[in-house]
From TrEMBL:
Residues 2-234 form the ABC transporter domain. It comes from Leucobacter soli. The lineage of its organism: Bacteria, Bacillati, Actinomycetota, Actinomycetes, Micrococcales. Belongs to the ABC transporter superfamily. The keyword Nucleotide-binding applies. This is High-affinity branched-chain amino acid transport ATP-binding protein LivF. Keywords: Amino-acid transport, ATP-binding, Nucleotide-binding, Transport. InterPro entries: AAA+_ATPase, ABC_transporter-like_ATP-bd, ABC_transporter-like_CS, BCAA_Transport_ATP-bd_LivF. GO terms for molecular function: ATP binding; ATP hydrolysis activity; branched-chain amino acid transmembrane transporter activity. One of its GO terms (biological process) is L-amino acid transport.
Length: 236
């Protein structure tokens, strides 16, 4: 579904992503794990067309999207849900969700898609008439994810869904993410917490200094003693 080949990207004169290559097969959940500031978010921004790719290529659903504009990439069905609670605070929950169905294909299915989102996040159905600014942090995170699902998505990229949330709220968000993954949606997830990422991943990619230093199924990656010591604090 998504193939990244030697991608280099950054900001101004600084290169952050240093020749990353990876693939995300259809129907799988791939997780990028690694320390903050090492290029995970920058890679998602390059994939979704928010910053330019300096070198390398990106193919989505068999088509080259390396130089496409962000809005065209969204129309293809590649949806990027960024970090934080980026919702429209003075709009209601329902209005925020409807804005996620702005492409022609998504608009045609918006009613059915809205019911699917409410089924995944029942809390949003309960709050549909409330303004987004009155929601809790966890509810705003659910709303941001739900708005992304309103698009005609073939693949969703979710950046740090647990960022800044209390552990009990993170548990709830991850229960709903489990439902999304189990539905067969193709997912590329960024998560700093290895254990959280492992709970969803078909495949894990460890990112350090803008490079992928280890890839594989979660159990395979955990067999690496250096990974266990660095990411889990487990020494033998």
């Amino acid at each position: 579904m998504l193939k990244i080949d030697g991608v280099v990207a950054g900001y101004g004169g600084t290169t952050i992503v240093q020749g990353v290559s990876l693939e995300v097969p259809a129907g799988e959940c791939a997780v990028l794990v690694g320390p903050n500031g090492h290029g995970k978010t920058t890679l998602l921004r390059a994939i979704s067309g928010l910053i330019k790719v300096r070198d390398g290529g990106i193919a989505f659903d068999g088509e080259d999207i390396t130089r496409e504009r962000a809005e065209k990439i969204v129309e293809r069905g590649l949806i990027h849900i960024p970090q934080g609670d980026l919702v429209f605070p003075d709009m209601t929950v329902a209005e925020n969700l409807q804005l996620g169905a702005f492409t022609k294909s998504a608009a045609r299915q918006s009613k059915a898609r809205l019911e699917e989102v409410y089924d995944i996040f029942p809390r949003l159905r309960e709050r549909e008439g409330q303004r987004a600014r009155t929601l809790s942090g966890g509810e705003r995170r659910m709303l941001a994810i739900g708005r992304g699902l309103m698009g005609d998505a073939k693949l969703i990229m979710i950046d740090e869904p647990s960022l800044g949330l209390a552990p009990v709220i993170v548990d709830e968000v991850y229960r709903q993410l489990r439902r999304i993954v189990d539905s067969g949606m193709t997912v590329l997830l960024v998560e700093e917490n290895f254990r959280r990422g492992q709970s969803l991943a078909d495949r894990i990619h460890l990112v350090e200094n803008g490079e992928i230093v280890r890839s594989g199924q979660a159990d395979e990656v955990l067999d690496d003693q250096a990974v266990r010591e660095t990411y889990l604090g487990v020494a033998e």
